[in-house]
Amino acid sequence: MTIVTARPNDDPPCSVRQLPPEFYQSFLSKAAKERRPSPIRGLYPLEAKPGVISFLAGKPNDAMFPFRSFSFTATCPSKPGELTTVSLNGSDLAQGLQYGATAGLPRLTDWFTGLQERSHGRGRGEGWRLSVGSGSQDLIWKAVQALVDEGDPVLIESPVYAGVIPMFKALHCEEHEVETDAQGVCSSSLRSILENWPVGKPKPRMFYTIPYGCNPTGMTATIERRRAVLSLAREHNFLILEDDPYFYLYFGKAERPPSYFKLELEQPEVGRVLRFDSLSKILSAGMRIGFVSGPKPILDVMDLHTATVNLQPSSLAQSIALALLEQWGYDDFYAHTKAVSEFYREKRDVFEKAMRTHLDGLAEWSTPEAGMFFWFKLLLNPDSDEEGDSKELIEKKAYEGGVLALPGAVFLPNGRKTTYVRAAFSLSTEEQVSEALERLRVVILQERGRVNIS
Which of 217, 239, 243, 434 fits as disulfide partner to 375, beta carbons 3.0 to 4.6 Å? Predict the structure, then answer.
């Protein structure tokens, strides 16, 4: 394998060693290798040549669009309590109303690239680029489609975000669960899986993880665990899918550990991390804007998928986000995310206080340092080695008692029994939290009595 040193045309020489484009051929799925550029969208860049008169695309004439301007009011992060007006008109509005680039509006992708430079220390010209999608879920699915064939083995942390389980089920994948705890992914579990892999059987090509405020467990992986995973990725040749919607919702006392995307700079070469970011938790969930950063060969294939399926992410949603982000600038963006993380820290504290009040002795948990979830174990049968199962209690009895939460089994790919429960603390008021956990306390005590009697 040849390692190349990046020397992009428009950037200064870069000393970061990167994996060559041909390295990724063995990672691509059969479907990815068969994708071909759109005969129309593949030629869009040619329209940018000065003097060219284009008959290429079937774009509607924007003179017939009825919208003339958009204006909205937003917070001013550097001046708490003040509001700012953001307007969208002229060429910026025209851009938002028209078909756009498959990978996202160029100014927005450039803004996000600058954000990755600031947040993760990743310079331009290190072999990675960025694409925008209709939410990070859209991009994760396209990445899975690009990397996984039907029946392939995959590595996934467990418990895992329930939204990705159907992706792997649809492809009939062999799901190899990597254990996690309050410190994040158990690298020892990952190593054991890989070192005991059957001889002659192809190893998994990807590992999926949420490293900050994991959904559902709330765990944030330590820097030691992250480094161990990166070393294993190099040793056993797999890619890391770093799904990170809660990066800016970190509120731990210690300094936020670096992302996999940043930490791979410590490796002999870069190019094994595919990172997914989202605006859903910090600007708007309904805008459906996410972005992926990673090796160009993989993103190129993902863009081919987009061009075939949904053409592009929404130009209008991107234009609205861009107008706000450009008006804020990076300093105000960071000020906003700091306020967001503080908001959720307070929500976490309220929920944990109520947990101690109502569920002390009835449940066990680790305090989350990011995200918006508590993952707690119900002590249903403390006098027996049989722990029990939270599924019926949460889905039926707790709901009948006026509490809606998720049993832990939905986050386990094999659906095994567990006494764990996931509760989101993002929306409920302090009064609602206290009332709900008091109701849950009653349900647990009733269940304990039933178990003990039986």
Answer: 217
Q: How far is CA 359 from its chain centroid?
A: 31
- Which residue spans within 325-372 are E strands per DSSP? 363-365
DSSP 354: H
> Burial letters for 344-371: b for 16+ Cβ neighbours within 10 Å, e otherwise?
bbebbebbbebbeebbeebbebeebbbb
H/E element holding 453?
helix 430-453
Confidence of residue 452 (pLDDT cuts 50, 70, 90): low
Nearest to residue 301, comparing CAs of 146, 171, 149, 104? 146
The model's pLDDT over 293-327, given as tens digits with 9 standing for 90+, comes to 999 999 999 999 999 999 999 999 999 999 999 99
Q: Provide the pairing of β-strand 273-278 with 239-243.
A: parallel
Helix pair 223-236, 187-195: axis angle to 10 deg: 20
Beta strand segments in 30-183, E: 69-75, 83-89, 128-133, 153-158, 174-181
Residue type, 185: V
Taking the CB of residue 134, how many other CB atoms lie within 10 A of it? 18
Could you tell me which residues come within 8 angstroms of residue 352 by beta carbon, excluding any fewer than 6 positions away?
Answer: 367, 374
